[in-house]
Amino acid sequence: KLTSTMKRFITLTFAMLMIASSANIVTAQQRRAASTAQQSRRNHQKVVPAKRVAESDAELGKKYFDSENYAKAIGYVKKAAASGDLDSQVRLADMTFFGNEVEMDREKAHDMIDQAIEKGSAYAMERKGFYLICEGMKQEGFEWFKKAAEAGNCDASVYVMNCYRTGDFEITQPNAEEAAKYCRMAAEQGSMEGQAFFGLYQINGEAGVEKNPQEGIALIEKAYKQSQRNSFEKNCPEAAKALAEHYAANGKAAKAQAISAA
After folding, report:
1. Which one of 34, 160, 191, 217 has the minimum C-beta count within 10 Å?
2. Quick one: 242 exposed, middle or buried, by C-beta within 10 A (0-12, 13-18, 19+)?
3. Which residues lie closer than 8 Å to 260 by C-beta, 6 or more apart?
4. Could you report the per-residue pLDDT of 236-246, keeping only the tens digit for each?
């Protein structure tokens, strides 16, 4: 028979084992909870967007150059040009040609532009054309604009398009077929004006362009959607009118009114 002392010992031992088991269960639960929380933090960290990478010297130079803030642009443009960025080298040449924050030296600017052209810069070809026109050599400048357009510069394509479309700038006579050719180039290169005017060519079936009103209005709408600050309505009024009429005829009166008002 068990004595009372032995019974108490067995009872106490069993109680201690139960307490230890409960403690182990709690500890395991705490570990699982901690692990779950840690995994949740990891998952959260994965979906938090990364901070935007700082703008490069070339990007900052372009931003200030395009806004004509040459005082801020010059430092970034020089650094980016020195590091080999081709567009920045062209911008530095441009600032040198016009004397923006650097001493004006047109001969030096031409040398800088010629070096960029040798490296294949269509942007440099466009600026070369502009410099020559500024210096009175309009026909030579126009030929450089054509080279730049064919090399992929959309600004040059738009300029040549307009020269042939209107016969302005004392350079060439109006030529509808050539205007349509460079208009198509500009549209394919992403120019808002090129898209708007080529859309009109398609709507009307003019200058050798196959008539396709549906594609034409879609291209004009594409130009409209990429424009900023009413630039579409100001620079492409005929296309804006065509798009407003299309919207009005298709139950989109508010959109039509917005374009007409602008």
Report:
1. 34
2. buried
3. 244
4. 999 999 999 99
